[in-house]
Specification:
Blueprint: E1 2-3, E2 14-20, E3 23-30, E4 33-38, E5 40-41, E6 46-47, E7 53-57, E8 62-66, E9 73-75, E10 94-95, E11 97-99, E12 104-107, H1 112-119, H2 136-147, H3 163-172
Antiparallel strand pairs: 1-12, 2-3, 3-4, 4-10, 5-6, 7-8, 8-9, 11-12
Length: 184
Amino acid sequence: MLKAEELKDTPTGDSKALKRGDTQLALFKVRGKYYCTQQMCPHKRAFVLSDGLIGDDIQNNKLWVSCPNHKRNFELSGEQAGRCANDESVNIATFPVEERDDGWLYVKLPSIKELDGVLGTSKFVIKKSETEDPFVKLDQKLERMKLKGRKGMQVSHLEGGLGEVGKANKILAGGERGSRGIDW
C-alpha cells in the first residue's frame, strides 16, 4: 500500500491521503507509530482528515486528529479510537496499521466491497437532482420586490433623479458636484 519511509516522523506528526477502491483513507505517523482512519469527517462529509491537526492528551495517553474545517476531535489511539470527543453524534472508522520488516505498511481493512459500501466516496457526492437551488428563495424575494413597485435602477423617485446606474455613470464621467471623476 505505502512504503513506511514515505511518511516523515516530525514532532507534530505527518499524514497522507490514500484511496482503496472508492474509499478515501487518512494515514498518520505520530512519534514512530502509524494510525489509519477514514478520510471523510462525518460532521459535514468533507474529505479533509489527513489535513487535520494532531493533538496529544499526555495525561490520558491519547492522540486525536482535529478536523481542519469544523474542529471535531477524533481519537486516534486508545480504547475508544474513532470516537469524537466533542460531538457524540459522529465517529470515524479506524483501522489497525502494521509496519513490517519489508518496509511496507499494512492496513487491516475489510473487503473493498464492504469498505466502499460504507465509506465509498461516490456515496457522498451530492447530485443536482438531490438538492434544491439555494437561490430559489432569494429569486422569489426579488420578484416580490419588483411587484411592490420598486423602480428599476435606471430611474429615481426624485424629480430629475438619475437612479443608481445614472448617478454612477455621471460620477465616472466627472460630472458629479465635488467629484473629479476617475483619473485614468
